[in-house]
Structure formats: structure tokens, C-alpha cells
């Protein structure tokens, strides 16, 4: 029988993987409110930020609020996991299934059935969408099936009495894997839907996303309003963590809470991972009043749990970007202690521009001073290069 004063265990209490439940989305209330307004007004939005800062969680919270308010159907596709045309079609048609009165899996099932059975079944079950459904199932080309799935969403949204539709396209910079012409297909349907379908384009490669929506030669030029993803404020994390730990009968406040935040905040996954490991330590050892030593251990374990991610991120940087990161990790002006000719200085400026645009670095205090957006990646780079604070 558990002790009365022991920490209260609950599964998934500090979620650290994928999108978190709406109740665990920290701060950014004004941002969420603006997203809800934009999407309910028929606008398309472009949500950009590095991986693991909470884009999916925040947008999911916004569209969840839209669905609860009624008159909106939300479809979500993540191109991090949907990497083929028919996968995309399956995901879209399965999410449409409940609102058009058919069972999920209808596309795959009818695609394998005979032509006459397909026509009879679809025309009867899909009602006014029957013709579009038949065309989708009988299309031989994968590319045209992808186009047909997008078209089916538009057809549904344009039906009299149908709810508006919001389509969330996560990791959008990878959408070409589904169809090389995906941007053109989306633009065509967005124009045809006449505001009845709104798109939320989420991307973790800011440079690629900016090019997709700001290059006049690209199909999605000016097709969405840019909404860069902010971090939650440290004070918002403090409020969330103190309340969350207290509900689990764990005292995390004052210097203990400050130490946790200093080691991880305001980065979403850094902070949630640290909270999770401190919570695990408390539950396993019956600790209800953790001290600075326990917090330091939790920060170290959280950083270790993210090490493989950091290695992957480090490997994608070129030599110039690593040089800049090394200067920042050592708390140096990015041009300090080096003699650069004109060509080298331009290369350094280009590397710095990429790192700031991609959200890896933020402007610090003073010219040439920058800081890492992610505290734990900062320490990873220091360790990697043998630097120190």
C-alpha cells in the first residue's frame, strides 16, 4: 500500500515525446488565440520553428479549441511519418470517414474490390461525394490519387451544411516525398476552396519554409501568413511546473525550481524532459522535497537522453556553422580572436545568418554576441569542443 505522503504516480505525467496533450501546453496563450482566429477566418498560416519547441503541440491545442467550438473539421498529416502518396491518401480519407458516414479504411478496401462493387458501394455511402470518391479509388496514378484526396477535402468543405475544414500539414518541408508537385496541388485546392478550407503549414526547417512561401517562382508564394513559433516564457514554465509537481505531492519551488529552469527553460523538450526525470527520481525514491542535487542529476540525465538528437543536429552543420557555434559556446564575439579576410568574413556572416534564421541561435547582448536557443544543446557543444562557460 503506497505511503500517504509519497509522490503520486500517474502515467505520462510529464510527456516528453511527440505532441503533448492540450493540458500540458505551456504558455503562448496569445499566440494560440491568434491562430484560432486566423484559421477560423479562412486564413492559411505558416508556423515555423526548430524541432522540439512545441509547434505540433501548440497548433494541436489551437485546432482542438476550434473543433470544440463546433463547425470545424480538422485533418492532420505529418510528413515526418507520411512519406508516400498512398499513405497520404489513406490518412486523409480515414480522417474524413466519420464525417461522411463511412468506416476508416474505405479507400484501401474499395480499391481492392471490383469496379462494379466500388461504384455501387461508394455512390451509395458517400452520397454527394460519391463521384469524387469513385474517381479517387479508380485513379491509376499515385500522383492523381494524392490530388484526388486533396480534392475530396475541398468537395466536402463546399457541400452545403458542411463544417469548415482546417488541414494541418506538419513537417511541410518534407511534403515533396509524397508528391513532387504537392505545393502546386495544395495551392490549387486552397484557391478552389474559397476560404472554406484553411491550411496550417508547420515546418522545422525555417530557411526552406521561407523559400517556399516567399519565392515568387514557387506555387505557394504569399499563400500563408507567417507565424514564427515563440518559446513559452520562463515565468509560465515556473507556474506550470510548480503546480504540476504540487499535484503529485512533490515540493518543487524556490531555489529548486530556479535550478531546474536555469538548466532547461524555456526550451519545451529540454524543460519537459528535465521535469520528467526529476519526477521519476522522486517517485522511485519516495522523495517529496527534492533539493539542488536531485535537480542537477535530473538535468544531467535529461541531457543524456537527448544526446543522440544533439549528435544528429551537430552532424548536419557545415564547418562554418560549427565554427560559429564554437565561438558562441565559449561566450565569445563571433568575430573575436580571429583574423578574417573579406571572403572568410562573408562566409562567417552567411553561417551566422543561417543559424539565426533556423532558430539555433538568438541575438544576445551587444554586437556580435549570440546565445543558444536550447540550453542543453549549448552544453552539448561546449562538451563537444572542450569549452567551458
Question: Can you describe this structure?
Answer:
With 389 residues, this protein is α/β, with parallel strands linked by helices. 54% of the residues lie in helices and 8% in strands. It has 17 helices and 7 strands. Helix 8 links the parallel strand 3 and strand 4 (197-203). It is globular, with a radius of gyration of 24 Å.
Which terms would index this structure?
389 residues; alpha/beta; Rossmann fold; Arc Repressor Mutant, subunit A; 3 domains; five-stranded parallel beta sheet; two-stranded antiparallel sheet; 17 helices; 54% helix; globular
Secondary-structure blueprint of this entry?
Elements lengths: L28 H12 L4 E4 L6 H15 L2 E7 L6 H16 L5 H6 L3 H11 L4 H9 L3 H17 L5 E7 L11 H11 L4 E7 L2 H9 L10 E2 L7 H14 L6 H11 L3 H18 L6 H14 L1 H9 L3 H11 L12 H16 L3 E3 L6 E3 L2 H11 L4
Parallel strand pairs: 1-4, 1-5, 2-3, 3-4
Antiparallel strand pairs: 6-7
Helix pairs in contact: 1-2, 3-7, 5-6, 6-7, 7-8, 11-12, 11-13, 12-13, 15-16
Amino acid at each position: 500500500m503506497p505511503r500517504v505522503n509519497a509522490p503520486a504516480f500517474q502515467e505520462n505525467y510529464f510527456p516528453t515525446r511527440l505532441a503533448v496533450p492540450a493540458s500540458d501546453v505551456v504558455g503562448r496563450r496569445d499566440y494560440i488565440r491568434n491562430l484560432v482566429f486566423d484559421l477560423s477566418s479562412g486564413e492559411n498560416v505558416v508556423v515555423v520553428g526548430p524541432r522540439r519547441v512545441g509547434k505540433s503541440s501548440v497548433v494541436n491545442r489551437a485546432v482542438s479549441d476550434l473543433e470544440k467550438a463546433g463547425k470545424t473539421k480538422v485533418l492532420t498529416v505529418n510528413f515526418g511519418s507520411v512519406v508516400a502518396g498512398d499513405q497520404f491518401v489513406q490518412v486523409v480519407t480515414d480522417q474524413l470517414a466519420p464525417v461522411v458516414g463511412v468506416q476508416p479504411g474505405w479507400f484501401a478496401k474499395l480499391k481492392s474490390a471490383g469496379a462494379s462493387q466500388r461504384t455501387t458501394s461508394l455512390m451509395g455511402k458517400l452520397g454527394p461525394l460519391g463521384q469524387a470518391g469513385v474517381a479517387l479509388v479508380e485513379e491509376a496514378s499515385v500522383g492523381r490519387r494524392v490530388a484526388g484526396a486533396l480534392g475530396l477535402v475541398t468537395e466536402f468543405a463546399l457541400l452545403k451544411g458542411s463544417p469548415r475544414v482546417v488541414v494541418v500539414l506538419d513537417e511541410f518541408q518534407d511534403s515533396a516525398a509524397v508528391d513532387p508537385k504537392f505545393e502546386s496541388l495544395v495551392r490549387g485546392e486552397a484557391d478552389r476552396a474559397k476560404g472554406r478550407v484553411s491550411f496550417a503549414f508547420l515546418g522545422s526547417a525555417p530557411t526552406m519554409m521561407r523559400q517556399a512561401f516567399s519565392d515568387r517562382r514557387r506555387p505557394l508564394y504569399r499563400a500563408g501568413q507567417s507565424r514564427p513559433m515563440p518559446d513559452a516564457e520562463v515565468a509560465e514554465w515556473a507556474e506550470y511546473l510548480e503546480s504540476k509537481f504540487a499535484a503529485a505531492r512533490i515540493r518543487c519551488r524556490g531555489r529548486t525550481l530556479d535550478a531546474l529552469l536555469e538548466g532547461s527553460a524555456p526550451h519545451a523538450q529540454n524543460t519537459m524532459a528535465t521535469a520528467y526525470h526529476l519526477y521519476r527520481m522522486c517517485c522511485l525514491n519516495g522523495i517529496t522535497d527534492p533539493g539542488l542535487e536531485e535537480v542537477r542529476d535530473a538535468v544531467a540525465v535529461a541531457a543524456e537522453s537527448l544526446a543522440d538528437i544533439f549528435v544528429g543536429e551537430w552532424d548536419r552543420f557545415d564547418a562554418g556553422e560549427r565554427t560559429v557555434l564554437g565561438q558562441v559556446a565559449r561566450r565569445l564575439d563571433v568575430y573575436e580572436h580571429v583574423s578574417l579576410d573579406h571572403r572568410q568574413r562573408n562566409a562567417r556572416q552567411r553561417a551566422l545568418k543561417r543559424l539565426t534564421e533556423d532558430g539555433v541561435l538568438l541575438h544576445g547582448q551587444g554586437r556580435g554576441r549570440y546565445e543558444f536557443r536550447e540550453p542543453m544543446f549549448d552544453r552539448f557543444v561546449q562538451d563537444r569542443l572542450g569549452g567551458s562557460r
